[in-house]
Amino acid sequence: MKLLVIEDNAAMQTTLQRSFERRGFRIVICDDGAKALSRWRASVPDVVLLDLSMPGLDGLDVLGLARAEGLTTPVIIITARGTLGDRILGLNTGADDYLPKPFDLDELEARIRALVRRQGQASEGFKPPEAPSFCGLRADLESGAVYHHGQPLDLPPREAALLRALLARPGQAVAKDKLFDLVFADAADAQPDAIEVVAYRPRKRLASTGAKLVTLRGLGYLLQPDD
């Protein structure tokens, strides 16, 4: 069984990795929200353990984007933010279970196995839906390519990453800092203003698609129909 652990606390990372590897699990650790989302897409785990307090994209942002893209992996939120309001918000965002820190590792394992059993029962005969389409635009969840009415758009990787993030929330503004974390997850030396250059380039490519990329000053970017 493969676990993706999205957690930035080094001590917790070590505890989870050592404990669950001894129990026969395969563990992938990621301490950054944007990079974790890329890992999740690239190699879908059996269960995701997700901390809420993360640098860049926080846990709820990661979860919301993953669910909007059609990633259905069971998620257990593990966090010190254990108030009733936090639990309700996490579950409403798409989490399957919620375990406040500190927790018992045996209980966590039992919850993981229960989620996998339920996922297996629910998926019998079930075909996951395609990613939603917006003005004929669709992002392929496996390859990361962006299509318009089935035809691939010739996009550099960063522009494709930007459009994938906006297609996950069409008609809703996505903040510049969150887009920067997603688009430049692999570039430690990139400056925040670089996202403006990336956002400028796809506008002409979208001209004939019926969608347009709109800048909202102080808020970020969004996709909306080109009326």
Quick tags:
227 residues; alpha/beta; Rossmann fold; Arc Repressor Mutant, subunit A; 2 domains; 5-stranded parallel sheet; 3-stranded antiparallel sheet; 9 helices; 10 strands; elongated
Summarize the structure.
With 227 residues, the chain is an alpha/beta fold.
What shape does the CA trace take?
A: elongated
Major sheet characteristics: 5 strands, parallel
The computed structural class is alpha/beta
What proportion strand? Answer: 15-25%
User: What does the radius of gyration come to?
Assistant: 18 Å
Give me the number of helical elements. Answer: 9
Using DSSP, what is the number of strands?
A: 10
CATH architecture annotation name of the largest domain: 3-Layer(aba) Sandwich
Q: CATH superfamily of the largest domain, called what? A: Response regulator
Any idea of the CATH class of the largest domain? Answer: Alpha Beta
- Return the CATH topology of the largest domain: Rossmann fold
Question: In terms of topology, how is this protein built?
Answer:
Layout lengths: L1 E5 L3 H13 L3 E5 L2 H10 L4 E4 L8 H10 L6 E5 L4 H10 L3 E4 L4 H19 L13 E3 L6 E3 L2 E2 L4 H11 L8 H8 L10 H7 L1 H4 L5 E6 L3 E6 L2
Helix pairs in contact: 2-3, 2-7
What would you note in describing this structure?
The strands form 3 sheets. The protein has a 5-stranded parallel β-sheet, sandwiched between helices. It has 9 helices and 10 strands. Helix 2 (33-42) crosses helix 7 (176-183). It has 227 residues and is an alpha/beta fold. It is elongated and about 55 Å long.
